[in-house]
Design goal:
It is a single chain. This protein is an alpha+beta fold. It has 10 helices and 20 strands. Helix 1 runs parallel beside helix 5 and helix 8 crosses helix 9.
Amino acid sequence: MTRKRGSSEFTLIIGAGIVGLAVAYRLSVVRPWLRLTVIEKESEIASHQSGHNSGVLHSGIYYKPGSLKAATCLRGRHDLIAFCEREGIPYKICGKTILATNDAEAVRLQRLFERGLSNGLTCTMLDRERLAEIEPHAAGVKAIHVGETGVVDFRRVCAQFAYRLGEDGHRIVTSAKVIGVRDGNAGVTVITTAGEFGARYIINCAGLYSDKVASLARNRPNERIIPFRGEYYELRPEASYLCRGLIYPVPGPRFPFLGIHLTRRVTGEVECGPNAVLSFAKEGYSKSSINPAEFVGMIGFPGFLRLAAHHWRYGLQEAFKCLSRRAFVNALRKLVPEVEDEMLERAPAGVRAEMLDDFVIRESALTINVINAPSPAATVALAIADSIIETLDRKM
């Protein structure tokens, strides 16, 4: 049975990052009768987290077996690769090398290896000789090679989602910042700087501002977005031979970031970073970016105070890497000793939303809120979309 399109949009997606666009694209395929509109506060799609990342197709080795991240990573990566192949988007499955540079890290590396096997991945433990064959310039006493990891340009993926949506008659409206939400008899009206949009249901994929948009829709979440700036350098072309694929450290046992690493992007450049330093604004891409209201709201949040209490030493280390280029270079040299300061040039920074170590999706009668979608959200965007569609089907 087909449904007729009404005068108002049946489903409205807030946020034209990779998750919002993936939700809209998947809906357009599996529910072709729906009338969809995606609204985005910026003048272009993929302007924030989706366009400021390393472009890694994650394998799922880090995630706790049974978590939502682990469950969706295998399927989500497969679906995204299939989309790239259908649409002619370049990607590369190059594998990732995770290095242990001392005996303490080797113990953690073994636990990580066992977790990867539990998550169904193709993991190989490397001795120094085998490591030298895969990454000849990397240093380590032991290493894991994870065959499923790859790279892609997520901006290209977003652009293709948008193209397919337009081709099917759906709308993407940019420069439309949400400033209010009003309930009605037949649905919801979303008030934006580009006008008002009526919908039967709204799906909030607003990324760094998903908590604020949820509050505007009177779905006050218990969680709050805490932004961390990630700073990058790039190896100059003549030094790019130092990294063949992806070179990562063993992550710390408790902090939710993976540490500074080297990534050969699908276009061939080698990116170095990111660190993870607290940002004083949700879109604070530079050290001088400060939004007083956002910062005061963040430091008054109990979840932030707990995070600071547990990880203040690590936070100070990351802040030092932000302030000292030498400290950043030293972190790289722990992985690849031949890296020198003059081999590096600055690259654009990114900002990540971090609260919890898993995805968080909250719903009310007329709204589905993607509150927390940290890495590997870009890799598994289509799998997240499928989960949201299941929730929407129950509502409909």
